[in-house]
Design brief:
The chain is an alpha+beta fold. The chain has helices at about 1-25, 30-35, 40-60, 65-85, 190-210, 215-220, 220-225, 255-265, 275-290, 300-310, 310-315, 325-330, 350-355, 380-400, 415-425, 430-455, 460-485, 495-510, 520-535, 550-585, 590-630, 635-650, 665-690, and strands at about 90-95, 100-105, 110-130, 135-145, 150-155, 160, 165-170, 180-185, 265-270, 275, 320, 335, 345, 345-350, 405. About 55% of the residues lie in helices and about 15% in strands. The strands form five sheets. The chain has a four-stranded antiparallel β-sheet, covered by helices on one side. A four-stranded antiparallel β-sheet has the order 2-3-4-5, with no helix packed on it. A hairpin with a 2-residue loop joins β9 (about 265-270) and β10. α16 runs antiparallel to α17 and α21 packs antiparallel against α22. It is globular.
Length: about 700
């Protein structure tokens, strides 16, 4: 029975991974019809559930009640999913203003279905962020008759529930005289699934607290008390400094520094919010030039220079072109080009490379693009788009469409908010700390390897204090961003990497009190997370959320998963380091002690990591159900998160899987398993796409 369960489990993991690539190649409808909603896929899950239940009974797992309830919870969740699949109804309802509708279209049944009541659309409206055309919410005012006349509001994250039916704001007509509501009817599946979520949360917490379970035993393990200690060597770090500060600002037509200081505080509409001009100017300069200043000139001076004297600035070589081949084809020497170099008279040189991408932004009207077959197939279309975007930004600035002053009817930012944003813009938090943390990380990690190989241990407290200082500094920047943006910063890849860096440093500080050898891992992993965050900071910053993302459930979902990823990253580095030490040392006794100590640490982290990942996934399912009307849609990000959970759940079954009692096998598995995390966080965005690509 155990062998059958293992085979089915592994087959489902491999099938789920393959299905995401099939969906990328064949489309969502094909993957849904032929895999996710097929009879054999449902049968495969059903057989796994039955085989697992039989194995639980054979093993008498109810004697370990908390662990037994975890498995029961997953069976209940899958049972709820099956109930939803076979009994639920979903579709869309279209209503025009002033009319009523009592039917909706069910794509699964491919027919219209009757409701036991009718909804009347009284009005539809769009709420905007102040002073912008960016939607903040979509609102349908409806009414219905049921034991009297009632009115209700349906908007993003605010649903209408009526006789078991749930109505979600989905879309609207172009003339804004009609609305499209998503309809969901699932009176049995959702309650069963939610009960499974609650049971799982209770069982996971119980497992962590139960005295007889492995997690509490690991906390008392002598192997962890023998944790390694090491010496921190302070070395000069390459603190970031702008190479532009060593260059003298040239005599280019623009405002002086004093006027630029005043201009920085001017409030404009940027990225659909009120912001100081400094934010727009820095983003513009960084996007075009690659740095937030230009040869000693502030970003505000760059912007005002382009506005006042475009005929002078068009000859400045400040447009960065990363692609060497594109530079060669354009006849550009060096990495930077002037705007004038990208035009041949009135002809825009990029047209010959655009091909099927479409017209570049704000291109001259008398320049016609060549046919797509004339486009050079050897040129990176991504490089062409990036360069075209930079040219478009410059033309928008000079045409007066980039800078939009704050309207009089829009409330201004307080002086404190403006000062906070200017402070946030001027301190490169990610750049400073990725250089510091990576430098200290590599130094201390090398020292750790040297000391461990010679079986020498040295305690040196300053390393922990340095990491604590780095954490406090980065936390200050994160809270400052939170204050400036007016929301918790968890809406995009840049912000989640910042949160991940904080979670990693906090984890290292907590664990490092008893096991100082994890502190170098804290420096290294947080440094790499900050590096990724810094690389993404050339994109627009601190933007308001899409309406559907304005939910506290989403913030909790993302933050919990990021904490799980931080623990999984520590496990990966911890395991690889243990293997590296044992491979370079030929002392069996010392190697066994190293594997045991590091193995117990990985197992100690594995429990909360897996439980946090499960909690984050299912909390995201609740948010999706509230926002979209379904708690699981087989989106590639969801599928790979499930794959990651299933992969990391395997070594928790050491009693049933003797191979994982061999610590070398455990470390190798945990080191390789992190590839699933990388695929979930990065690979899906770059290779598979899906609804979660906005992150």
């Amino acid at each position: 029975m155990k062998k059958l369960v293992c085979i089915l489990y592994a087959a489902i993991v491999l099938l789920l991974g393959a299905a995401t690539f099939v969906e990328q190649a064949k489309g969502n409808t094909y993957a849904s019809d032929h895999i996710y909603h097929s009879w054999w896929f449902c049968l495969l899950w059903g057989v796994l559930v039955l085989a697992s239940a039989a194995y639980l009974v054979r093993r008498r797992l109810w004697q370990r009640l908390s662990v037994f309830l975890i498995h029961v919870a997953f069976i209940v969740i899958l049972g709820g999913a099956a109930t939803s699949f076979f009994t639920s109804k979903e579709g869309q309802m279209h209503i025009r203003t002033g009319t009523a509708e009592n039917m909706f279209y069910n794509p699964k049944e491919r027919q219209m279905q009757l409701l036991p009541f009718a909804l009347h659309l009284d009005s539809f409206s769009i709420a905007y962020y102040p002073g912008t055309q960016a939607p903040a919410d979509f609102v349908s005012q409806v009414s219905y008759d049921q034991d009297g006349h009632h009115t209700a509001t349906i908007s993003m994250n605010h649903i209408l529930q009526l006789q078991g039916y749930r109505f979600y704001q989905s879309s609207f007509d172009a003339d804004r005289q009609g609305t499209i509501l998503a309809v969901n009817y699932d009176p049995w599946g959702t309650p069963i699934t939610y009960f499974g979520y609650a049971l799982l949360a209770l069982a996971m917490l119980w497992t962590l607290l139960a005295r007889g379970e492995q997690f509490r035993s690991l906390l008392r393990s002598p192997a962890l008390r023998r944790g390694l200690c090491l010496l921190v060597m302070l070395a000069p770090t390459a603190l970031p400094h702008s190479p532009l500060s060593t260059l003298q600002a040239r005599s280019i037509s623009t405002i002086n520094n004093e006027k630029a200081e005043r201009a920085a505080r001017m409030q404009v509409i940027y990225n659909d919010r009120v912001a100081p001009l400094n934010t727009l100017a820095r983003d513009f300069t960084a996007k075009v030039y690659g740095r937030p200043s230009y040869k000693g000139l502030r970003a505000e001076q760059v912007v005002y220079g382009w506005l006042a004297k475009p005929e002078v600035w068009k000859n400045e070589k400040m447009i960065k072109i990363k692609d060497a081949q594109l530079r060669q084809l354009l006849g550009i020497e060096g990495k930077y080009a002037s705007l004038a170099q990208l035009f041949d008279g009135q002809e825009y040189k990029l047209y010959r490379f655009i091909g099927p991408l479409g017209d570049p932004m704000q291109a001259p009207q008398n320049a016609e693009p060549q046919a797509s077959e004339d486009a050079n197939p050897q040129v990176s279309q991504k490089a062409v788009r990036e360069l075209d975007e930079k040219v478009g930004l410059i033309l928008m600035l000079t045409n007066g469409t980039l800078i939009k002053p704050r309207p009089a009817d829009v409330a201004p930012l307080s002086e404190r908010r403006v000062s906070a944003e200017l402070l946030y813009n001027r301190i490169p938090f990610s750049k400073v700390l990725f250089m510091v943390n990576l430098t200290l990380g590599f130094l201390t990690f090398g020292l750790l390897v040297w000391l461990t190989a010679r079986r020498r241990t040295v305690r040196f407290a300053p390393m922990r204090w340095l990491l604590m200082a780095a954490f406090a500094f980065y936390l200050f920047g994160y809270l400052l961003r939170w204050y400036v943006g007016g929301r918790i910063p968890l809406a995009n890849g840049n912000e989640t990497m910042q949160f991940l860096a904080l979670a990693i440093m906090l984890t290292a500080l907590v664990i490092g009190r008893r096991m100082p050898h994890v502190l170098p891992f804290g420096f290294l992993l947080s440094g790499f997370a900050m590096l990724v965050a810094w690389l993404g900071e050339n994109n627009p910053q601190i933007t308001p959320l899409m309406p559907v993302l304005s939910s506290p459930l989403l913030s909790s979902h993302v933050s919990i998963i990021m904490m799980s990823y931080a623990l999984l990253a520590f496990m990966m580095v911890n395991s690889l380091f243990a293997l590296a030490i044992t491979l370079t040392r030929k002392d069996p006794t010392a190697n066994a002690a190293t594997l045991e100590s590091f193995g117990h640490l990985s197992l100690l982290l594995l429990y909360p990591a897996v439980f946090l990942l499960a909690a984050g996934i299912f909390l995201g399912a609740v948010w999706a159900n509230v926002s979209w009307g379904r708690y699981w849609s087989w989106d590639p990000k969801e599928v790979w998160a499930l794959i990651t959970l299933m992969i990391y759940a395997v070594p928790l079954h050491r009693q049933s899987l003797p191979a994982f009692r061999r610590l070398a096998v455990l470390h190798a598995y945990l080191g390789a398993a992190f590839l699933a995390v990388l695929m979930t966080y990065f690979g899906v965005n770059y290779f598979l796409g899906g609804m979660h690509s906005y992150a």
